[in-house]
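for the recovery benchmark. tokens below, seq after
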């Protein structure tokens, strides 16, 4: 440290040194100055972390297998909070009095993975992560566990049969993995277990203006927009777009191969 830097630091610490002298703690001056410097550094680091988490990225833990095989119970995903702009749900404890969204230059696209609150969980504070299937005014229907968007069935390609409670299938039952092509240059793996399931055969839904129809990739083990008490998701209820796995403790261990894995790459 040169003389100029030493002088600046001395001036900066002068008020604290005067405080130490007033208390009669001169013999502890060096130790107290070290404690003060460390405390200042920690406070600045915490403030920076809060700002980063509030306005840029936040990590959310995956609590269930509803997004198998892509996301596993124990993954933590990084959610881009500025991708769609901000709403009150983008901020801790929903404190910001924002009615709809601000700085929203982009809107969700079919195939995006988003974190959000449902209309019901606005009261309970529960967050969900699902894939955007239907855009405003789309017609959505599931028949024999195949998706129909605006009357057209999506393309499917069989990948593999996965045993129950296996690495990428946390269901208590065997499941088949398929590649689903949503017709929007987006492909991803989905799990299908029972073509006769209630959630695999639905009426046709019309997505309201300003809302989005969301589903889990684990089609027979996901509570999502197919169910009336879950419903479609208003744009204002979206926290952000999930982009990467931050880290993972899925399947009982730390998974180095999943750190910062891009979850939006086409399969």
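predicted aa per position
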């Amino acid at each position: 440290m040169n003389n100029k830097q030493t002088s600046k630091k001395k001036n900066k610490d002068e008020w604290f040194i005067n405080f130490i002298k007033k208390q009669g703690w001169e013999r502890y001056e060096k130790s107290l100055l070290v404690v003060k410097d460390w405390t200042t550094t920690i406070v600045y680091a915490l403030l920076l972390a809060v700002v980063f988490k509030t306005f840029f990225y936040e990590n959310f833990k995956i609590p269930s297998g509803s997004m198998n095989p892509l996301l596993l119970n124990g993954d933590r995903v990084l959610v881009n909070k500025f991708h769609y702009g901000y709403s009150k749900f983008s901020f801790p404890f929903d404190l910001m009095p924002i009615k709809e969204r601000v700085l929203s230059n982009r809107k969700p696209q079919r195939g995006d993975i988003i974190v959000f609150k449902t209309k019901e969980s606005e009261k309970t504070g529960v967050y969900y992560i699902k894939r955007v299937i239907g855009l405003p005014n789309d017609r959505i229907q599931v028949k024999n566990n195949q998706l129909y968007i605006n009357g057209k069935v999506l393309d499917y390609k069989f990948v593999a049969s996965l045993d129950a409670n296996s690495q990428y299938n946390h269901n208590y039952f065997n499941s088949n993995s398929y590649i689903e092509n949503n017709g929007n240059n987006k492909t991803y793996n989905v799990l299908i277990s029972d073509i006769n399931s209630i959630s695999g055969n639905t009426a046709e839904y019309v997505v309201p203006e300003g809302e989005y129809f969301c589903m889990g990739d684990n089609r027979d083990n996901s509570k999502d927009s197919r169910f009336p008490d879950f419903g479609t998701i208003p744009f204002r209820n979206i926290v952000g777009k999930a982009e990467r796995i931050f880290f993972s403790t899925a399947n009982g261990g730390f998974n180095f191969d999943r750190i910062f894995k891009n979850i939006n790459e086409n399969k």
